[in-house]
Amino acid sequence: MSRTLGRLTYAGGRRTVLASALAALLLAGCGSSRDRATTSSSTSTLTLAPAPAAGQTGAGHPGAVNVYSADGPGDLSPVVRGDPALVYVPNSLSNTVDVIGQRTLKVVAAFPVGALPQHVTPSYDLRTLYVDNDLGNSLTPIDPRTAKPGPPIPVEDPYNLYFTPGGRFAIVVAERLQRLDFRDPNTMPLVHSLPVPECLGVDHMDFSADGRDAFASCEFAGRMIEIDLRTQQVIRTVLINHGVASPQDVKLSPDGRTLYTADQQNGGVWEIDPYSFRVIGFVRTGAGAHGLYPSRNARFMYVANRQAGSISVVSFRTRRVVKTWQLPLPASPDMGGVSADGNTLWLSGRYNAVVYAIDTPVLVRDRRQHVVVEAAPVVPHEEDRGRVPVRSLHDRVDQVGDVRLTSGDVRGRVICAPVGGVGFRLGRESGSSASRLRRL
Asked: Which of 101, 221, 339, 344 is the most buried (most CB within 10 A)?
């Protein structure tokens, strides 16, 4: 996998990515542009220095840098260069993980995990993948070299999992318990539990450009919180659209000056100044905006619009939508990641039991829109060239939450493979392979 979604380390105030071949694939009008941030009373008063002018570098301010500079095409860690090119798909209803070969586009393995697997997260050293079993109160480790699971590790309410810059702590996002649990990154014993009652539905996170702070979305509270990673305390909160919002995924812009959070309720992406921690804008993308993924060249951000069944491409430079890609309906693109070569965006189809593999170069180069292949339970008609039939691997339609890629890439293919979890439908047998599709 590529390093776009790898763990981060910092030096000299600049954000650099630890050599990582693991990339996550786990597969109307604007609101107020100046909602005022509030400071949490749980910590001492925070004194903020003025943000440096453009081009300057100060504490927490990246200046003219690219935080994704180490995430270019094929930029893999030696640790994972020998790992097979696979996609890991957590299935939240059947409590399984399906493994898809990136090149064969077939389900090559499946195994049981704990209850309600939500995401798959690489360890900081990239030698282990963790399946986050939310209701199972456990993490299932996977060896990415063999794709084999190990014994579950007891962890309370692991809805999501992150590793702090530098790898000192693992942060378990315990959504149900309204906590951020700082744990040992290797063996997972609890070091410190941070209650976040003000952040109902704590979900997704990203880090500041200097690695000192984390930003977390509060899905059911309509706000974001900022956490000082040195004190492990909430230092600021910002109310989004007066609380009438449902923030989801979180991503920092390449220059570190804008924090984006997808708003599932308002159908777009909010822009937040990470230094003043105030809302500064809104980009409308589509209904159910959920997952956010930067392109390998750090020029664009892919926004998965789950309810609209589309993907919006947002320019980091202009902060505008430059293209919207409608998937064949019904579709529910959710979470995922970008392939190592940057040519394929993999997304889970949460409520349609499929995985979407989207040929991004066609999108980025502004050529004619290409076909997205959707796994279908019926033989396609001649006019439905964008659909490929795949038998179901499970007795029931499952939900697919996330998809996680290991090293490797897919070239020249646009497919939608069925699987058995939140977003993917898998069958009792691997079924027919997805053929190479010609572009329209």
From this structure: 339
Tens-place pLDDT, residues 363-417: 444 333 333 333 322 222 222 222 222 222 333 345 666 777 765 433 222 344 4
Residue 370: CATH number of its domain? 2.130.10.10
313 within 8 A of 364, measured Cβ to Cβ:
yes
CA 193/CA 249 separation, integer angstroms? 22
- Model confidence over 245-276: pLDDT tens digits? 999 999 999 999 999 999 999 999 999 999 99
The model's pTM: 0.76
Residue 241: strand, helix, or coil: helix
Give the E-state strand segments of 257-407 in sequence order. 259-263, 268-273, 278-284, 289-294, 300-305, 310-315, 321-326, 333-338, 344-349, 354-359, 374-376, 387-389, 403-405
Domain total of the chain: 1
189 prior amide bond cis, ω within 30: no
Query: Which secondary structure element, helix H or strand E, spans residue 108, and what is its range?
Result: strand 107-112
Q: What is residue 16's predicted lDDT score, i.e. its pLDDT?
A: 30
Per DSSP, what are the bridge partners of residue 228? 213, 233
The sheet with strand 96-101 has its strands ordered as 23-26, 403-405, 86-91, 96-101, 107-112
* pLDDT (0 to 100) of residue 167: 96
Residue 262 domain-assigned?
yes
By residue range, what is the domain housing residue 79?
8-31+69-418
10 Å Cβ neighbour count for 55? 7
48 part of a folded domain:
no
